[in-house]
Amino acid sequence: MEKPKYHLYCTKCGNEISDFGEWFSMGQKCTCGCARAEIRYFADYSRLGELLEGSADGLFHYFDFLPLNERRHAVTLREGTVPLEEWKYLEDIALRQYGLRISVFVSRSDLSGGTGTFKDPAAALGASLFREWGVKGYCLASTGNSATAFSRYLAEAGVPFTVFMPCDVNPDSVEVIRSHGSSVVISEGGYGAAKQEAAAFSASTGTLMTAGNIDPIRVESKRTLVFEYLRQLHRMPDVYIQAVAGGTAPLALDKGVRELASECGGTVRVAGQDIPVTLPRMILAQQDTCDPMVQAWEKNTADGFPSGWEKDYPSVTPRTRISILTAGTPGNYPLVAPIVRRSGGAFVRVSEDSLPALAREVLREQGIIPGPASMVCIAGFLKALEQGLLHEGDVVSVNMGEGSARAGWFREIVGEGC
Fold first, then answer.
1. 3-state DSSP helix/strand/coil percent for the chain, to nearest 5?
2. Which element (helix H / strand E) includes 250?
3. Environment class of residue 120 by beta-carbon count within 10 Å: exposed (0-12), middle (13-18) or buried (19+)?
4. In this structure, CATH architecture of domain 84-115+218-416
5. Segments in 11-81 forming alpha helices (H)
6. Fewer beta carbons within 10 Å, N or C terminal of the chain?
7. What are the structural domain ranges in the chain?
8. Contact between 226 and 258 (Cβ < 8 Å)
9. What's the pLDDT tens digit per position in 308-351?
10. Could you tell me if 166 and 191 are in contact, meaning their C-beta atoms sit under 8 angstroms apart?
11. Which pTM does this prediction carry?
């Protein structure tokens, strides 16, 4: 019998699930009721260093370390290996205004070969697994980016896709999703209502539904960012900054670091160097018009992080125009916040009103208009400087998640001031 490539393990009881075929048949839940599983690979990690030298043309460059059994099932549009650009403009701000000599590398997910967002790797792996296991349909609730990415990749895989979106969704995203042949249902309520409607649809039709931010498909695909740091930078960054709604990426980075600590002893040999693989300080930004994680963090910090602190978080009513950052009830906070604390990081709040002016500055300096959620990330970098969260000599990763192609309203506002 051929040796299996991987197993899934329940994070609650440790139960072993043989593969994604079994996981899908179980309704993406362990028999104990837990919906969170992690993957362990039976791979030769000594070969990882070879993959981290030279160029890469997409997510499946790391095929041996992804939970897909046969390469022929891969659905790829050259996603997941986006350039990490050094932005001297941000480094100069740190030096001029704060006297800090740091290096700043921006993940250009807008240059992804898929739909130009950080969601593309998850969609690529999902479409590939659905093809491998004969999944007949898929649904999810989304505020924009995930649905756009999955609609593109599932069209490639020939898997019918239904997405449920909140009433305040960006119409540009809806138009793109429908152009890929997907079914879009606009809720009369917000994101919470859309999630309830997606769950009801899944239950009534038997359609496979996303497991959300803890979905092992999302986590496993996004953890390859650890590989990309090692390949492109030949080191891990000291600091990781992103805008956050649900928080899959912090979970994925943590998983990737733990995996290499377990399988490689915490170092990976690349180009003749033994590179330590450590968790960067995580600085997660939210705009002031939808900031429940920041509110929770501020309260937890003031209270001294008492026992059970991670379960103490509010629900807020989003007042933001940034539709992809409208998670008013941060259900993932109990998982994400302890990672942020363990990393020595923080949550920071930025002003949504300040984003257009900042985007004009980025346009002048870098020649691009990032999407509004990406601007929350860049504003988070500036806030981290202001709050003394960055240190002399830091290598900083700014994970800019998307461009402005599907945010016409933001491009118009930015253009008005040019």
1. 45, 15, 35
2. helix 248-264
3. buried
4. 3-Layer(aba) Sandwich (3.40)
5. 20-25, 48-51
6. N
7. 84-115+218-416
8. no
9. 999 999 999 999 999 889 889 999 999 999 999 999 999 999 99
10. yes
11. 0.95
